[in-house]
Amino acid sequence: MRSIALVDCNNFYVSCERVFRPDLLHRPIIVLSNNDGCAVSRSNEAKALGVKMGAPLFQIQDLVRRHGIVVFSSNYTLYADLSNRVMSILREFSPLQEIYSIDEAFVDLSGFSDIATRSRSMRERVYRDTGIPVCVGIGPSKTLAKLSNFVAKRHPRSHGVFNFNALSVQQIESVLKNIPVEEIWGVGRRLTMALNQRGIDTVLQLRDADVAAMRQGFGVVMEKTIRELRGEACIELEEVAPPKKQIVNSRSFGHAVTTIEDLQDALAHFVSNAARKLRDQHSLAGLLQVFIMTDRFREDRPQYCPSIAIPLTVPTAHTMVLQGWAVAGLAAIYQSGFHYKKAGVIFSDIGDASLYQGDLFAAAPKNPALMTTLDAINTRYGKGTLKLSQDSSRPSWKMRQERKSPEYTTNWDELPVCG
After folding, report:
1. pLDDT at 367
2. Are 1 and 108 a contacting pair, CB within 8 Å?
3. Residue 342 forms beta bridges with which residues?
4. Minimal CB count within 10 Å: which of 38, 134, 271, 336?
5. SS3 at position 409
């Protein structure tokens, strides 16, 4: 039987903030989304006070003041660094690992004879070396590993580790009948409503449903889910993430932007980020889309949300070439008199750079060694060390982060000071 573990960091963003602020232990904390909009991570104390996931800050200001809830802006640089440290530790416990998200990883423990001890060691090592608490759920499939992790987080007697494979048949049924169907990996709100209409409210009811009928009603993904709930591994670990077929880089602005110069500056930043991702996966883009948007929540202002798609006759990952097309696209759709709230670029028609066949009549690639040099310098000295002059030269569109903590682990000027 397979033994797949899901290691999930508890309240990850909040836990990262607490690593360098131990005085915040047991205090209610929330971390906000981009531009300090909504709560995207909550401590258990904040959850107990009724702070919902996704709650806009302006709607819970009274609650924040009344209970002294500590509020942070998102600090993705800090979170990414601590995530890398957690994943690096987990790699020592198994040669097979899939990093599923910034705070979750699947670890294949199949074949080990000390799974119980190994799982607790993983949990203890991560906390000892990083200060991040994690829970470990183990099952014969990825779907059951996710459910085991759900139990590990909520069952005090599990002490943060729950092994589905160690249960008897009766214990399995007892566990599954007490978990709502919406807690299954991949079952969202709409699918939950559809399942509820069929009388399926618990995980056990879905596991025991007729596979053929469910596949006919909901498709092959539902069949895989049911088989995974029955202990049949249908979704394999992906040790190496496949190349992306589409790359999007966009952002909501901290303040409304009105001039084309500010939008050009923002697009230069987005193109640089997206082009670096293209080059990292050794790909070329054949289609570039540019979009700009006004704030749809400001009904007192005129709305305008245009976009433009630009087919590239020669696929490329060259930042300067892509930037030139992005600026041309922006010029075609920009209109003055509007307050723009968001902009972005989308790269599509992405192909492997090694398989691209050149065009005999096309111009020679523009100085390809320049991008290699730019990436090498930024890898060695840090992101943004070398960039286009137009990239982020104007602060008007920058994200609002009024409550951001220091970048304790990646910025020499913001290292924690003892004493």
Report:
1. 67
2. no
3. 252, 293
4. 336
5. coil
Alpha helices in 8-53 (DSSP H): 12-19, 44-48
Q: Are 391 and 268 in contact (CB under 8 A)?
A: yes
How many residues make up the chain in this entry?
A: 419
pLDDT at 328: 95
d(CA 24, CA 86): 21
- The secondary structure of residue 11, as a DSSP letter, is T
In 260-299, at which residue ranges do the beta strands (DSSP E only) sit? Answer: 283-294
Which of 203, 202, 224 lies closest to 215 in space, CA to CA? 224
| Residue 403 to residue 64: CA distance in whole angstroms | 14
Q: Is 20 exposed, middle or buried (0-12, 13-18, 19+ CB in 10 A)?
A: middle
**Taking a C-beta distance cutoff of 8 angstroms, is the pair 203, 62 a contact?**
no
d(CA 253, CA 271): 16
The pTM of this model reads 0.80
pLDDT for 29-41, tens place per residue?
Answer: 999 988 888 999 9
Long-range contacts of 280-283, Cβ-Cβ distance < 8 Å, separation of 24 or more: 280/375, 281/243, 281/244, 282/243, 282/352, 282/353, 282/354, 283/243, 283/244, 283/317, 283/350, 283/351, 283/352, 283/353
What is the bridge-based pairing of β-strands 70-72 and 29-32? parallel
At position 333, the amino acid (one-letter code) is I
Please state the separation of Cα 264 from the chain's center in Å. 26
CB atoms within 10 A of CB 263: 25
